[in-house]
Amino acid sequence: MDDKTPVSYILPANKGHGLCSYVLLFFLLEKQNLFLQKYCIEGRIKYDSLPKVKVKDLSAIHLISYHPDRDLLPMIDTVVYRSETTNDIVFNTLRDKIRQERISPAVICQIKEELRSKTFPDLCGSMDTLDIAIMFLKSVGADPESLLNDFIVNLLQIDHFFVSQKAQMYCKCKHVQSLWITLALEKTKRLEKHYEESFDCVSFAFKEKLSEEQRCALYDIFGNLQIEQLAFMSEIIFEFILLNIDIPNEDEELKNMDRDGFKEALSTYLFDPPYLNEALTPDWLQHVVDALPLEGYIQEFFVVMLLRHGFS
C-alpha cells in the first residue's frame, strides 16, 4: 500500500476493496475470543464473569498491541492456510514435496511427556507456528533429513517455537506431519477434559451420542484390550479423523462415509497409511477392525466416541 491506495481497502466490507480488511478483522476477533476462552480454562473461571468495557470507556490499556511484521503477517499466513484448505489437501500436498515418516515410538513418548507439562497457550502457539511452517514446506519443499527447527528459526525467522526440547533436537522435516498430529492430539485431550468442542472441522453428522446398546457393543469389542492397545488405537483413529473424515475429495465433494462405511474406510487407511516405512498393522488391531460390523449399529459418526473411549 502507498499514498495512492484508496482508503476503501482498509475499511472492512463483506465485498469489494474492503474484503481483505473484513477477513482480517474477523480473524482477529476470533483469535481474541479464543484467547479469552483459553484464559478462562487456565484460570478456571467462567467466561461470563470477565469484565466488560463500553466502547466510550476504552483506553490503550484495554487494547492489544502488535508488531506488523512479527505478529500480523504470520496471522495472515495462518488464516489463508486454514480457510482455503483442509488437513487432507494440505498434507497430501506436503507429502508430494517431502516424504513423511513417523517419529520413533521412543522419541514420541518423550515428546508427549514434555507436552503434558506445558501450558495450553504454549501448545496452541506451537501449533500455529507449525501450521505456518507446513504452509511453506508444502510450497517450496526442503531436505527431508534437515532439522525442522533449523527451517523454522533460520529460514522463517520464528524464534521460541518448540514446546518440546526433544522435538527441537530430533524432529526433521520428514517428521512434521507426525509432530503436528502429536500436538493436535494433546490439544484435543485438554479440550475434552474441559468439555470444549475439540473437532470443530467435523460436521455434526459424526457427533451423535451412542445409545446404551451401542456402548455395550463397543465394550464387547474393546473390553479385552490393554491400556496401551487402547491408547494406540485411539491415536490411529484420531489421525484417521483429522486426515480422512468430512473433507473434500478430488472432486471437491464430501467423502460419503455412509457409502464407504467406517470399517472399510479405516481398513483402507491402515492398508495405505500416510507415512513411508510404516510398520505392519499389529495383528490385534486388524482383528479389532475385522470385528466391526459392515453395517448396523456402529456408524461412521461413532468414531468420535471411540476416540473418547480411548482417552478415559
UniProtKB/TrEMBL annotation:
Biological classification of the source: Eukaryota, Metazoa, Spiralia, Lophotrochozoa, Mollusca
GO molecular function, one term: ubiquitin protein ligase activity
Species, as recorded: Mytilus edulis (Blue mussel)
Keywords noted in UniProt: Acyltransferase, Transferase
Transmembrane regions: none
Keyword DNA damage applies: no
Name of the protein this chain belongs to: RNF213
Domain of life of the native organism: Eukaryota
EC number: 2.3.2.27
